[in-house]
Amino acid sequence: MIADLPRPIAVVAHDAGAANMLFAWLEDIPAGDLRVALAGPAERIWQAQFRESPVLASIDDALDGAASLVSGTGWASDMEHAARVEAARRGIPSLAVVDHWVNYAPRFEREGTRQLPDAILVGDAEAVTIARETFPGTRIAQLPNLYLQRQARDAGPVPDDGDILFVMEPARSTWGHGTTPGEFQALDYFMAHRGGAGIGEDVAMRLRPHPSDAPGKYDDWIRAQPGATLDTAGDMSEALGKARWVAGLNSFALVIALEAGRKAISCLPPWAPACVLPQAGIVRL
């Protein structure tokens, strides 16, 4: 579907989730057919994958001369929404990538302004169902999730002596349970109940920060936990390669872990909202 978009194609992204999926789909499109404006985690991912392809300074620069737009749908920035608004104003057709299974409608709303793209692109059948129910008048299409497939494949076989990989994400809530941020509550809950998943107390654990996490966010927690270290792997497949168990909250990484044959565990505590991931193989601790 992306290959059929009119060119040049403006590419606007900020958050890592949609960027990872989108950039895998763009690999076969010549750099000269792309006008790229990125920020945040998406820019770092692009620079690692496409070192020779320049990033433009602004959304306007990307849209100037573009015949279509493809954008992410993250929560951490308004730039993707702003690109869709401006593309609509200019009469440029747009496509947006949704990378998860929750909060579909708010992805296209900012300060009372709703701007849907002409089509929404997802990577699995569950997401198709949710998108069609949420946006009945919008075209929904599915492509193979090449990013997920590659990361799961490159993780390799499950090591018999593997450790725990905890994939972090900001909960953005305390769930009405004190003042400790939710992601730290989930960490503590996992440490207290991991035996219920058959994990011994002597198993080492690595924490993999979310792309939006500030450097050093988990340093104090790690120092207080014997056997815990910070994961510094270059990508998810490398991080998964050493793991037998993968724990988290609602992270897309749990879905990759499941695909890679790891035991995937959502460790949201009982007072938090239930895990939103639809994959039946993910264990609820």
Mean pLDDT: 94
Low-confidence stretches: none
* Share of helix, binned: 25-40%
Distance between the termini: 39 Å
Give a description of the structure.
This protein has helices spanning 16-25, 40-49, 59-63, 79-90, 125-134, 146-154, 182-193, 219-223, 236-241, 252-259; strands at residues 9-13, 34-38, 68-71, 94-97, 109-110, 113-114, 119-122, 139-142, 163-167, 205-208, 228-230, 243-248, 263-266, 283-284. It is an alpha/beta fold and 285 residues long. The chain has two domains: 2-144, Rossmann fold, CATH 3.40.50; 151-284, Rossmann fold. The strands form three sheets. It has a six-stranded parallel beta sheet, with helices on both faces. The longest helix is centred in the first third of the chain and has 12 residues, at 79-90. The radius of gyration is 19 Å and the shape is globular.
